């Protein structure tokens, strides 16, 4: 399955049926992904034999009407776009100088349905942001232990009768993740296999009852006050399955 197909499935989770009606005309979200992909491919610069650098900051310009529709999705759309940019760069073995920033901007000079992408390469720290994607809603997880269940004492609450009050937990140390069942009644699965405790890699799928929970790690730009928990992904080999295209 191609990257755009993956994005469309992710977007389908992020947009409810009523809101999807707003995309019957004008700019389509998938057209933004195609424009970002073209911008990355066009601006790729060969620095050395093993290093091809691509932009990491993007301004996506569109008509005010299109911008109003896209903004209605909130951060879910931007998160999906960052995720797609990461995956496309990894598939091409491209590298970034810093974290990824994508800004959606209204441009009076663009007609409805058109999109323009401006980009630049900005060196900086990376904030690795782990999230749990549940039915299109993304829940940031904190360093330490994040409990999932249907009870109010869980850090992430799911409305699922098949889940225990504290069903499972995700452990995150700033660079690696694990998932652990908390003695639940119906058990916990990871990628279709029942587990007690296991390493959790990006795009790993945790199943609790009828709930499908996807673990993602987004490489976002760190704010000046936010220390980066890991080094530049262009120079460091990562332990999470080589997800970000580590240098050889």
Automatic annotation (TrEMBL):
UniProt keyword Metal-binding present = no
Q: Which PROSITE patterns match?
A: FHA_DOMAIN (PS50006)
Enumerate the transmembrane spans. Answer: none
UniProt keyword annotations, A-Z:
Phosphoprotein
Locate the compositionally biased regions of type Low complexity: 222-232
Q: Which CDD domains match?
A: FHA
User: Per the database record, which ranges form the FHA domain?
Assistant: 146-195
Which parts of the sequence are annotated with region: Disordered?
A: 222-248
Protein name from the UniProt record = FHA domain-containing protein
The species this protein was found in: Agromyces terreus
Phylogenetic classification of the source organism: Bacteria, Bacillati, Actinomycetota, Actinomycetes, Micrococcales
